[in-house]
Amino acid sequence: MKDLKNKVAVVTGAGSGIGRALAKALAARGCRLALSDVNEEGLAETAAGITGTPVRTYHLDVSDRDAIYAHAAEVVKDFGQVNLIINNAGVALSATVREMSDEDFAWIMDIDFWGVAHGTRAFLPHLIESGDGHVVNISSVFGLIGVPTQSAYNAAKFAVRGFTESLRQEMKLEKQPVAVSCVHPGGIRTNIANSARMSKPKSAEELRTSFDKLAMTTPEKAAETIVKGILKNESRILVGSDAWGIDAINRLLGSAYQPLVERFAGKSLYR
C-alpha cells in the first residue's frame, strides 16, 4: 500500500489518544474513515475535527465479538470496501498476579487481545477482497518485555504480537494481498493511565504521575510514525525512542534484561 488516497481505513478506539491522531493523519492523506469507540462523545469530537474526506462513526465495544463482526459488515455496506484495519482500542490494568481479580483479568484480555483478534478476523476477508489490504495491530513495548504489576497487560500485548507476526507469515505464504504490521508504542501521552484499573487505589495517583513522566511521545507523533510504517510495509513499528531502546535491550540481552527491570521496579513500585 504505497498510497492511502481514497483507501477505506477502519480505526477502533478513535475517540481519543492515538486513535484520534491516526484518524487525522489518515484523513490528511485522503483516506475515507470508519471510526469507532465506546466513547461516543469523544468519537464525535474526533469526527468534528476532520474535514475534506468522508467520515462515518460507529459505537463499538471491541470486547463484544458479535458486535465486531456486525461492524465489519456495516462498514463494507457503507463504503463498499475496506483496505486498512487498525485495531487500536485498548485499556490498562496495574495489578500483581496475586492481587488481580478474575474479572479484571478477563476485562483486559477481552479488549486488548480478543478485540484485536476478532477485529482482524472479521475484516480479513474484506481486506483480501480489496486486493490491497493492510492489518495494523497495536501491541506495546510491554509486548516485548515483562514488567512487574503488568502481567495481564503483558499477557494481552505479547499475545497480540504473536498473533500478528503469525498472521503476517500466513499472508505471505498464501500470497494474499494483505500486509500486516505490529505496532509497539512506548510511553504515549494519552489518557490510558487515567482510565486504567488499579489493584491498589491508594497508589493509583502515584502510578499515573509516574506514567506521565515516562510518556515521551505525543499521539500526533505516534500516528505519523505508524502511518509511515504502514506505507513502508514494516512488520514491526516501534514508536518513540523509549520503544527503540527497549527493543534494543531485549535483542542484546535476551532474558538477561529482567534484572534491569527488577531493579527499576524495586525503586518505583516496591518501596
Automatic annotation (TrEMBL):
Top-level taxon: Bacteria
Keywords on record: Oxidoreductase
Family according to the record: Belongs to the short-chain dehydrogenases/reductases (SDR) family.
SMART domains reported in the protein's UniProt record: PKS_KR
Domain Ketoreductase: 7-191
Record-given protein name: SDR family NAD(P)-dependent oxidoreductase
